[in-house]
Fold this sequence. Notes:
- The chain is built from three helices and 23 strands.
- By secondary structure, it is mostly beta strands.
- The protein starts with 5 loop residues before the first helix and ends with a strand.
Amino acid sequence: MRRTLLVLAALTLPIAAQAQTGFRVTDFATGLERPWGGAFLPDGRLLVTERPGRLRVIGRDGAVSPPLAGVPAVEARGQGGLLDVALAPDFATTRELYLCQAALVQGGALTRLVRARLSADAMALEGTTPILDATPPQEGGRNHYGCRIAFGPDGAMYLSTGDRYANKGRAQRLDDLGGKVLRLARNGAALADNPLAGRAGIRAEIFSYGHRNPQGLAFNPWTGSLWEAEFGARGGDEVNILRPGGNYGWPVVTKGVDYDGSRIGEGTSRPDMEEPIHYWVPSVSPSGMAFYTGDAFPSWRGSLFLAALNPPGLVRLATEGDRVTGEERMLWGRTRFRQVLQGPDGFLYLLTDESSGRVLQVRP
Length: 364
């Protein structure tokens, strides 16, 4: 059943923001379990992953399909499971899509990239094939997989991977795919012009490194730059603009501290490491993000929206080019959001991180 959450918005937004934005929030789809990633099909339907290992299609009326067949087995423990989904740029003709998941292999668990095709009736995946494992696998904890996928204007595919938590130093190791953003061809291979390609002992897939748990990845449609958001520990959540070959510091430098209050690394910055363009102390736990380009909310055009987990809510960053010029917190303190998407109708769609998960629609 679809519910209107207008009262929720009114209770949590400043009065000035209500007058400026004039939006309402409704339940668009219900009956999901920990929805994590989503992608709109060309016909306006929405593909959504559920972390326990299911992929569903949500109709334009909010009806939720049965789980699709052909979805790969996942390691659905801790923070792992079936995570992101992205359509290939030529999906309309190839029906090709990509999934990011936690997978269990000999030696432990890892982040895995999978390629598949959506069947003509949108009821199954076909030709499902793993194309990249973020090795080495890790025994023990099942946290910090990263796992966002973005396609760039250069035609390359970008994949974020987490440091896997138990060994922070993986993010700095260049023979290790943990704690990185990777730049890949459609078959999962490294591209020949990657910034670190051709160097002995260094994984050629690496585009940037020194990341903790990057769950936000989006290209700025006005500048073409790649923006990334990642969790800090206790404080130190970051938004970065990624430079080819850049070192973003974790765990050598961070704006936050460890969960017990102890210092991490050397301090808050170092001249040879990249600075975030925006950060939070205390944390907001940013997950998925999207730039707003639509016409439904003219005053939001150019904004970067980030789904926040702790405290729960939605963050809007005003931007000008590659600068952040302001921040607004919306729907604050009520629901954990895992992903935010712009629909073909120009509305926003929010995936809630709940066992009784929903897709919320934000419209004028």
